[in-house]
Every structure is written in structure tokens, then in C-alpha cells.
Amino acid sequence: MTYQQAVDEAKGAGLPWLDQEMVLKPSSQLIALVRQSQLLAAEVAADAGEE
């Protein structure tokens, strides 16, 4: 089954389907959390390399 066939079947079954691309934008809180996570991961990796 191709992607388009799956989409057609989903639509035919009455499932909601967006025909245009949905663009998501992260919140500022999520961006800050990801930055903190990356900094922490870098610190842990650097500490592991010192041992």
C-alpha cells in the first residue's frame, strides 16, 4: 500500500485529514528546556571524558 492509498482509505473511513502541511512552532519554555538539556548532556560527556 502506498502512502496516498493509505490517505485515501483514511479519508474514506471518515477520519479527519489535513491536506496542507502543519507547521509547528515550539514554545519558548520548550526551547529553554532543550537548551538546558543539551548543556547538561555536554557537561556530563565532558566529565566522563576526564575519568
Quick tags:
mainly alpha
Molecular structure report:
The chain has 51 residues and is an all-alpha fold. The chain has helices at 3-12, 28-50. It starts with a helix and ends with a helix. The mean pLDDT is 93. The chain contains 2 helices and no strands.
Shape: elongated
Structural class: mainly alpha
Order of helices and strands: HH
* Helix content class: 55-70%
| Poorly predicted tracts of residues | none
Gist?
The chain has 51 residues and is mainly α. 65% of the residues lie in helices and 0% in strands.
How would the blueprint of this fold be written?
Layout: H1 3-12, H2 28-50
